Amino acid sequence: MSRQEFMNYMVARPVYSEPSFEADNEKNIIVPKSLRERLKNTCSCSTKKALTAVKSVVPVINWLPKYRVKEWLPSDVISGLSTGLVATLQGLAFALLASVPAAYGLYSSFFPLLTYFILGTSKHLSAGPFPVTSLMVGIYVQSAVPDSNYLVPGNATGPNGTIAYTVNTAARDTDRVTVSLTLSYLCGILQLMYGILQIGFIARYLSAPLVGGFTTAAAFQVFVTQFRTLLNVSTKNYNGILSIVYTLIEIFQRIGTTNIADLIAGLLTLIICSVVKEINDRFKHKIPVPIPIEIFVTIVATGVSYGVNLEKKYNAAIVKHIPRGFLPPRPPTVTMFSDMIGAAFSLSIVGYAVAVSVGKVYATKHDYTVDGNQELIAFGLTNIVGGAFSCFFATTALSRTAVQESTGGKTQVASMFCAGVVFIAIVAVGSLLEPLQKSVLAAIVIANLKGMFWQVFDVPVLWRQNKIDAVIWVVTCIASILLGLDLGLLAGIGFALITVVVRAQFPTTATLGSAPSTDVYKNIKRYKTVLEPEGIKIFRFSCPMFFGNIDFFKDKLKKAVGFDAVRVYNKRTKALRKIKKLIKKGQLRTTKNGVLAEVGIDNEGYETEEDIEESEENRVPTKEVEVQVDWNSNIPVKVAVPQVTIHSLIFDFSAVSFMDVVAVRSLQVIFKEFTRIDVNVYVGGYEDHVIEKLESCNFFNDKIKKDNCFVTVHDAVLHSQNQNMYKDLQDPFFEKISLLQESKGEYEIPEDDLEDRLDAQDEALRRLAS
C-alpha cells in the first residue's frame, strides 16, 4: 500500500448513535474512592513517601549531591561574583524606592539568596528586591508613615517670623523599617499559605499582556520617583488615585530648586550606563562577560563625591550612614496586619508572578522545570526570614537574573558567591559607599528600566495578533498609572476577566458543509469547495453553553437556518385554521378571478398587527400552494404557507466544554420548536460529559430520544440522509391539509396553549439567567 493510499484509507463501520456506540463498546464503570480510602492514602506514610515529600519541600537535598564540581563550579564562581556586584548596588538603589535607609537594601539583597538556595526550584533566579515591588512597598510605607507625622521645630525661621519645621528622619526611618519588615512578614505568610493550599494557579490570571502593561506603568512610576531624586527636588509624598500626576506637577513647580551637582552627576551616570548597556546588548555574543558599568560608575562617583566634599560644598544628597554588620532578628508588629492586608495581597501576587514568569523563561531555555507551588513556598519562607532580619519584600530582578545566567551560572551555587559579595559589602566595604550621591543610584535605577519601557512596542504586535490582548495591555497600563499600582492591578485583572466573559457571551459560530467525497466538515464561508448537504443545516457552537450566552446561541441559530421556528409554527397553524374555518362555514372570500391571494398577507380578515410589523430580517419565507376548498367549485385557492427548506438540523457540539441547567432546558425547548414544524434535530460530535449533563438534567424523554445524539457530525448526516431519502419537504404540512379536506374541517389542529407554555418557559429561563 502506497503512502497516499494509506492516507486515504478509511475503516468501514456502522453509523454510530450514542446508544449504538455504547452497545458495541462496553463502558468502564468507575467507582469513586470513598472518603475513608482517600484519607488513608493521603495520610499513610512510608520511608520512600517521606523522603519524596522532604525533597519536594527542600529541593537542595535533591540537586546538590549531583553537583558537578569540576564542570560547573568555575562558571558559578564567575557568575556569582559578577551578580554580587550588581546586587550590592541594586540593593542600595532599590532601598530608595522602598523608602527605607540604604543599608536595608543590602540586607534585602543578602538573606533572600540564602533561603532561595535551599528552597527554590529555579537554577538561575537571583532572589532579592525588584524595582516594581520595591516601589509598591515604598508607596505603602510613605502612606503609613508620612513625613508630616515627624515634623519638629527647626532652628531657622520662615517668612513673617514663622517657625520652620524639619523632619525627624531618624524616628521616621525607624518606623518605616518596622512597617516594611512587617509587610514582608505578611506577604511571606500569604505566599506560604498559597503554596500549602496548592493554589499557584492564581498567577495564571495575570496574563502576559496584563503583566506587560502593569510593569510598564510601574516602570513609569519608578522613573518619576527616581527623577525626583535625580533632581534632588523635595515634594510631598502623594498616594492613591492620580498621585503620580500630582507628583509630576509639584516636581515641575519646584524645578527651580534643582541641585545642580546632583543633576550633573545623575545625567552623566545615566548617559554612561545607557551607552555601555547598549554596547553590552549589541556585542553580547562577542563579550564573554558584560561590562559591569554600574560598578565602575559607582566607584568613580563615590571617589569624586568624597574628594570634592559635594555634600558640604553643594548640599548634595548622599547615602550617608551605612552601618556595618547585621541587625538581630525582629518580630512583626502583628497589629498592623489588618491595615496592610490589601497591599500585602497585591505584593504577594505580583512578586510571585514576576518570579515564576522569569523562572519559566530560563527553565525553558535550559531544559528543566520550575514548580509553581514550591516557588510560592520558597518565596513565602524567604520573605518571612527576610522580614525577621529587617528586609523589605523580595522576589527577583530581571536584570540581576539576566546577569547571573549570561555570565555562565549553572546552579544556585552561584547565588552563594553572590551572597558572599554582598556579605563583604555589609560587614566591611559598605561604609566606603557613604559619600555616594543618591542621584547616581537613581540614575542606575532609571538605566535599568529600559527593558520595561521597551514593552510599549509590544502593543502594535499584540494589536495585529489579538486586539483584545492589546486593549488589556493599554487599559492595565493607564489604570496603574492613574489609580496607583494596587488599584491599577485590580482594575486590569477585572477588565481582563470581563473580556473573557464577553468573549464567552459572543463566541464564534459557523454553518458547516462537507468537503467533496470526505467526512470532513468545515465553515462554508471559508472554503469555496465545501457544500452543505441538501436539506440539512449543520450549526457549530464553539464555546461552553451557559445562561450568559444562550440567547446569543438562539439568535445565531435563527440566522443560520434562515427562519424562526416559532413564527413558522404560528403561521402554519393560522393558515390551517383559516382553511378549517372556510371549510366549516362553506364561505370563501375570493378576488375577481376567484383566487384567495396569500392568506395572512393580503387578506384583511387574517392579517395581524404582528405580521404587519414583522421586519425583513425576521420575515418568514412563504410559498403559494393551491388548496381545493370549495367542493362545489373547481376553483382552487392559493394560500401562502411558511416554507421550510431543511428537513434536518444538526448541532456540532464538539467544542462545547460544558453546559449549565439553563442551557440544557433551552436546548430542550429548541428541539421541541423544530420538531413540531417537522424538522428533525440531531447532535453530532460532543464530549462525554456533555451527554452526562444532558442525562442528569432529564433532557431525554419520550419525544427527545438519546438516538438523536451521534458520535460524529458525519454519522448524524448519514442518518439524516437515510431517513429523508424519499421525503418531500412539504409532505407533513400537506398531510394536515389533506386531513382537513377529507374530514371537511374536523381535523384537530394543535392549540395555542402549547405555544403559550413554551413562551412562559422561555420567560422563566430568562428570569433564572438574570
Fold and architecture overview:
The structure is a single chain. The chain has 770 residues and is α/β, with parallel strands linked by helices. It has a six-stranded mixed β-sheet with strand order 6-5-7-10-11-12, sandwiched between helices. Strands 1-4 form a two-stranded antiparallel ribbon. A two-stranded antiparallel ribbon has the order 2-3. It contains 32 helices and twelve strands. Helix 9 (169-196) packs antiparallel against helix 16 (372-388) and helix 25 (565-585) packs parallel to helix 31. It folds into three domains: 79-155 and 170-499, no CATH class; 509-563 and 646-729, Transcription Regulator spoIIAA (2-Layer Sandwich), CATH 3.30.750.24; 587-642, no CATH class. The model is unreliable at 588-613 and 628-632 (pLDDT under 50). The relative contact order is 0.11.
Helix content: 55-70%
Give the termini distance in whole angstroms. 60 Å
Q: Give me the oligomer status.
A: single chain
Low-confidence segments, given as residue ranges, are 588-613, 628-632
Q: Roughly what fraction of the amino acids lie in strands?
A: 5-15%
**Helices and strands: which structural class?**
alpha/beta
Overall average residue pLDDT: 80
The number of helical elements comes to 32
Instruction: Count the E strands.
Output: 12
Main β sheet profile: 6 strands, mixed
How many domain modules? 3
Going across the biggest sheet, name each strand in turn: 6-5-7-10-11-12
Identify the overall geometry. Answer: elongated
From the alpha carbons, calculate the radius of gyration and give it in angstroms.
38 Å
